Fold this sequence. Notes:
Layout: E1 2-10, E2 17-25, H1 32-42, E3 52-60, H2 68-79, E4 84-91
Antiparallel strand pairs: 1-2, 1-4, 2-3
Amino acid sequence: MFAYLVTLAYGDVDVPTLAQVVFLSDREGEDASSVATSLLQNAEAQAPQMPRFDWTTLKVHGSQTLSQADLGRLVAAAAKGQVGVGRVSPLRLR
Length: 94
């Protein structure tokens, strides 16, 4: 399993809200394009499905979490292509 820290952008196009979430994949070398495709196809995937986003790790503005209702809206928007993918950084799992 490979883990990536993904920066997401959503909301206002001119001043988007930035958030970070862990993306889990069975592929090495994921990039913004492949993660964006996975976001569309697998936004609602849950363990043990792969690839998937671990929405419990989502942080907005660095340290804030979303309510369950807001998180649900974000995941639904991601599945519709309304959330952008910025940086994708590999993480080391211990």
